[in-house]
Design brief:
The protein is α+β, with helices and mostly antiparallel strands. It has one domain (2-227). It is 49% helix and 13% strand. The chain is built from ten helices and four strands. It has helices at residues 2-6, 8-21, 28-47, 51-84, 111-121, 148-152, 161-164, 174-178, 184-192, 197-200, and strands spanning 90-98, 138-140, 206-214, 220-227. Helix 2 runs antiparallel to helix 3 (28-47) and helix 2 packs across helix 5. The longest helix has 34 residues, at 51-84. The protein starts with a helix and ends with a strand.
């Protein structure tokens, strides 16, 4: 996999990202975003040729992140129900997020790869990631009755629509894909954000964030927990 990143064109784009991401010039924000998208396109196009190598890692990521989503879902419901006993006007937003640390299973662990990871976590350069790993976070009380399959995107109607519609690895064996349930996190990261496939499939550690708001007091607090 290291060979993907050793290509001269990839290295050139990444060096440009690193230079601009440390710049103080306001106009560089859009340039960084454009370069991150270019990098994603270049890496993803090459990853398609390595389907058999990446598919087991994708499956492991999908299983791990679905477990993290379930933990978030359960903790958020318990926390909201507990807080609502003190104030029924409370509002809460729960998100699943990546940690700041470079993914520990990623084949590249250089200083440059860590800086690229930090750039990808910056909302200003990767705006579709602002809501976290899901396209829409959990909002309470509005989502109090939302089922976990609906939140995680594990309901059957979503299983192959993306993959058969020209997404990653459309040439994969049909029976192999049908027995595997992809969740909304993979789709959101692959389709809407600047993360390349090879950026996120090695992640196994996640954070939850819970934002709380009381209508009467206009106060705000935050709770974070790491899920591995």
């Amino acid at each position: 996999m290291e060979n993907l990143y050793e290509k001269a064109d990839i290295k050139y784009v990444e060096q440009e990202i690193l230079k601009l991401s440390t710049s103080k010039v306001t106009g560089d924000k859009e340039q960084v975003r454009t370069l991150l998208r270019l990098r994603k396109s270049m890496l993803d196009n090459r990853a398609r040729a390595l389907e058999k190598e990446f598919l087991p890692v994708i499956k492991e990521f999908n299983v791990t992140v679905e477990r993290a989503l379930k933990d978030l879902y359960d903790v958020a419901h318990r926390y909201y129900e507990y807080m609502a006993t003190f104030d029924n006007g409370i509002q809460m937003v729960a998100r699943l997020q990546f940690t700041n640390a470079n993914p520990r299973l990623h084949p590249l662990q250089s200083e440059d790869s860590f800086c690229i990871w930090k750039a990808l976590l910056e909302y200003g350069w990767n705006p579709s990631f602002q809501s976290g790993l899901t396209e829409v976070p959990l909002f309470f009380p509005y989502d109090i009755k939302k089922s976990f399959p609906l939140f995680a995107g594990t309901y059957e109607e979503t299983q192959l629509a993306y993959w058969r519609g020209g997404g990653f690895f459309e040439d994969a064996q049909k029976d192999e894909m049908e027995e595997f349930h992809f969740n909304t996190v993979f789709y959101h990261l692959a389709e809407h954000t600047c993360f390349a496939l090879t950026d996120f499939i090695y992640v196994r550690d996640f954070e939850t964030s819970v934002d709380i708001h009381w209508d009467d007091q206009k106060s705000y607090s935050r709770l974070e927990d790491t899920i591995s």
